[in-house]
UniProtKB/TrEMBL annotation:
GO terms for biological process: protein-containing complex assembly. This protein may play a role in the biosynthesis of the prosthetic group of nitrogenase (FeMo cofactor). It comes from the Bacteria. It comes from Fundidesulfovibrio magnetotacticus. This is Nitrogenase iron-molybdenum cofactor biosynthesis protein NifE.
Amino acid sequence: MSELIFEERADQIHVKGEGPFKLACNRESLAGAVSQRACVFCGSRVVLYPIADALHLVHGPIGCAAYTWDIRGALSSGPELHRLSFSTDLQETDVIFGGEKKLEAALLELIDRHAPKAAFVYSTCIVGIIGDDLQAVCKKVSAAKGIPVIPVQSEGFKGNKREGYLAACKAMFTLMGTGDTSDIGPLSLNILGDFNLAGEIWIIRDYFRRMGIETVANITGDGRVGDIARAHGAALNVVQCSGSTMDLAKMMKEKFGIPFVKVSYFGIEDMAEALYTVARFFKDKDPNMLERTQELVREELAVLYPRLQELRRDLEGKKAAIYVGGAFKAFSLIKAFRHLGMSVVIAGSQTGTEEDYEELAQICDPGTIIVDDANPLELSAFLKEKDVDIFVGGVKERPIAYKLGVGFCDHNHERKEALEGFVGMVNFALEVHRTVMSPVWRFVPRRAGNRPDASLACGSVEERS
């Protein structure tokens, strides 16, 4: 393995087949390593802000407000208040004398101006240091304005992104149990951990509708405060991004007795199994549920498979690298690449657990590099070592790929193409094919010397064309 690996990071990297599997994870990032992982505040903001009819106010310096709607392509079918970014913009005098008055004034003005159904107030590192009492200010404003004003204890230095997920779940949980559930039927569920990137939650909701199931609340893509308040009336919680919302599912089970299932909507097998898992849960209440689900899957696969076989002819034998936020995506992506005849030679995540990585190691091929909480130095070294054809990641990984002359597929918050569901598998395959097969890669330095016409790499534009 590369000599560029920090000694302190060695136990967070494993090559399958080189000794028994053991991978350290879920610990603080190594200082100075410039981890790809985000902070607690980012984790909370990513989960909560797709709630479209709520006000989202960042209490802290203006720089923290960079985490806005545009870092995640979460779409709304109605209100778009979540697309506006608000900050108290704490200055030096606020740090010295406290920012509570500034926070109260900001909340009162914004609530009057935008009439939100609720307000979330995010604490940042500096707020945790100066000791502003968010809870007291939020309670006071809530009483004055008659809407929930919810503090999100998300000081960035408290841990890593996973701690932010927990802070978000605790904030949302305060809404639950306050809404009317009298009109919710027995065939009902909540969708947890889907953020409606490129409208994906609408695809999944349509599948459930065709199965005969009502979706009570989207948590949180295209989310509404009122739906979250009545989410406790659903019969089942379906959890996709388990890292971000599993804590909420457990809280709801403990207080309201709602069972939950873990699923993935990416790839063929996992999407089909997600629908079958839900159908099996409801089959006693609706004996025809499983039959309808099977028909739905057959219809979708009849369109999907011919397209995949056509694309596979070009992609057979190509190599891919994966580095994503939650490890659950990596499982589905490995299976998806196998349908395209491609092998995954690098697989990692920012927030995977020990259980996640053990499962990941089981489905990876021998020689695959498995990494937790990587940094740009490591990722660059691995990409060059494995000579990959495409790198799947997010906004922070894109520059690494392009600087190395490697194809890139955005599978994170910023994507504009729906990749969930059966139609999402087609979109993913098309994007991979267009990227890997692009003629531009013939001219990058790492590949130019391997071509029969390598001399053209140094020729004129006319010669290359």
